[in-house]
Amino acid sequence: MAQFDFSGTDGLWQAHDQLRAGMEVPDAQWKRLSATPGYAALTASEFPREAFVRRWVAAFGPGEQAQAARAEYEAKGDPYLAHYLEVSRRRDELGCFQDELARRAGETMRLADARAREFLPAGPEYPDTTGAAFVIFGPDARGYVPVVIDLLFAMTLGDRLWLLLAHEAHHQMVAAARGTRIGQAGYARDDLEWVVDQIHLEGVADMVSSDPARPGPMFDLAELATVPAYLAELDRGLSEVLREPAKRAEVGARLRAGLRLAGHPAGYYIAETISRTLGHDTLAASALDPAEFFAAYRRAADRAAGERTDRGRSPGLSADALAMVRVLGGETR
Q1: What does pTM read for this prediction?
Q2: How large is the angle between the packed helices 161-178 and 191-208, nearest 10 degrees?
Q3: How far apart are CA 133 and CA 83, in angstroms?
Q4: Between vectors from CA 36 to CA 30 and to CA 41, what angle results, nearest 5°?
């Protein structure tokens, strides 16, 4: 099984130290950094290389030009700049953490791979987890190939890092089994596809990364309490597009704008309802198919009709909404 790749962080530490010393980093060096596995995955479809470079120069450079750029980003409340400034402050601490990660890479990946497979249906052959590339990009991770994780973000997770790796490994395995190309150049989804995909993919994967040693909801109850209203709006929107396909772009934009935190709370709400009401095996069986995921939720919501939990009442989904999800599931490849 693949291990951890640190070529991206090693390359950035080199550029960081040059900038801190007042030296200019040649463009050829930036290009080599962007070709390392983690940054290559991030820049293939999501982040422009130039956006990284501009912020790194602003965060790490001591000159007047860098200071002016830093002030401009700070005035805008740019979260990436704040992250890079913290990375610079914790340079030595992060270096020690990187060494520790390298020592326990094999065992961490074995745990993550096994956990991800618990939430997949039997039948298909799933690839081994491709390992993880640790880079500096923002407080987040991506289930690309390889999995990409921000080093500072990983350090804040402590003993829960393996669960994040399992979450991202699950994304990899689902994408491979479905033949999707998420994160690769040229892959595109419209807003409605994105909404349905995010709720499905993140919902199951958030159950993967829920800590079995610390039971309880992954999200604040106030956040989860907003989900039923959104699901009612989702139901109306999907049904409307099924009846009037010309409204797809308008409805998709509205649903995407209203979906909080990239679909994590809504997806977790649905996945947890399925698992709690119909059982773990039903949830795992839905991991490859958004139509099965939403259909399982409808069955679970119907079974729990009238039940009120600390997450609120679970609203059902209409037959029209499920029919539209089936249409979208056939398109999202």
Answers
A1: 0.86
A2: 130
A3: 18
A4: 105
Helix (H, G, I), strand (E, B) or coil at 6: coil
Which candidate, 288, 313, 310, places its Cα nearest to that of 300?
313
Per-residue confidence (pLDDT) for residue 1, from 0 to 100: 41
Give DSSP secondary structure letters for 135-168. E-SSS-EE-SSSEEEEHHHHHHHGGGHHHHHHHH
Are 169 and 113 in contact by the 8 Å Cβ rule? The answer is: yes
Contact 112, 129 (CB under 8 A): yes
pLDDT in tens, 42-79: 999 899 999 999 999 999 999 898 999 999 999 999 99
Angle between helical axes of 191-208 and 290-303 (0-180°, round to 10): 70
User: From CA 11, how far away is CA 83, in angstroms rounded?
Assistant: 18
Q: In terms of DSSP H, where are the helices of 46-78?
A: 49-60, 64-75
Residue ranges per structural domain of the chain? 1-188, 191-331
Q: Calculate the CA 102 to chain-centre distance.
A: 23
Predicted pLDDT at 83? 96
Report the C-alpha gap between 182 and 179 in whole angstroms.
9
What is the pairing mode between strands 312-313 and 4-5?
Answer: unpaired
Q: Quick check: 183 pLDDT over 90?
A: no
Q: What is the mean pLDDT of residues 219-238?
A: 95
> Model confidence over 115-125: pLDDT tens digits?
999 999 998 88
